[in-house]
Design a protein that fits this description.
It is built from 7 helices and 5 strands; from the N terminus they run E-H-E-H-H-E-H-H-E-H-E-H. By secondary structure, it is an alpha/beta fold. It has one domain (7-197): 3-Layer(aba) Sandwich (Rossmann fold).
Length: 198
């Protein structure tokens, strides 16, 4: 049975019971209170192989690799939105998030090379990117991840309306960071309103 109109929550952290997981727990609690359907993808529990630039999708419009990524293509198409939660590794997203992003080359190829989109380009979808960084805040702390997320959300035809950053997590945890928690709660509240309106 196809999953339709869910929000896809992508957990890009390998660590259990740490900041990213606690952020996701909060999101899920708010979704359940508001009857928002969702699907949680814990990427580090999934078998998603690397894109090796074989060029197959440039000719066929879909990926030749069959693994846990295969059903996610349809999930993106059917979704109302996607939320990515990732730790910041070397000023970018985690390895597993980047692997998933690279595999959306198949969608990119169908849209921009073959001009036969494998995703409904007219459907209204909403996106959110949440990044957690251990360093104290500085100007380019999240720049690499943001650049990756900008092209990713464009690829899956989802409007990236929310970019939320948590700095200094090595010193101040999610529970202790009241300002971030308030900012996140406000963003989730607004996101839910947007999802209900489409």
């Amino acid at each position: 049975m196809e999953k339709k109109d869910q929000i896809i929550i992508i957990n890009g952290s390998p660590r259990r019971n740490k900041n990213c997981n606690k952020i996701i727990k909060n999101i899920i609690e708010q979704f359940e209170l508001n009857s928002i359907e969702y699907e949680l993808l814990n990427l580090y529990d999934m078998d998603i192989d690397y894109c090796n630039a074989c060029g197959f999708c440039d000719k066929k419009g879909y990926c030749r690799i069959k693994d846990d990524m295969t059903p996610i293509y349809k999930d993106f198409d059917n979704s109302k939105g996607t939320i990515v939660v990732s730790p910041t590794y070397f000023r970018s997203v985690s390895t597993k998030v980047k692997t998933l992003v690279d595999r959306t080359q198949a969608i990119y190829s169908s849209k921009y090379i073959l001009k036969k989109p494998s995703i409904d380009t007219k459907k209204d979808r909403r996106g959110m990117y949440i990044a957690v960084g251990g360093e104290p805040p500085h100007e380019i702390q999240f720049l690499g991840g943001q650049l990756v997320m900008d092209i990713f959300f464009k690829c899956i035809n989802t409007k990236l309306n929310y970019n939320i950053y948590m700095s200094n997590s090595d010193e101040v945890s999610y529970e202790e960071n009241e300002k971030f928690r308030n900012d996140l709660d406000n963003a989730i509240e607004n996101y839910i309103k947007e999802i209900k309106s489409i």
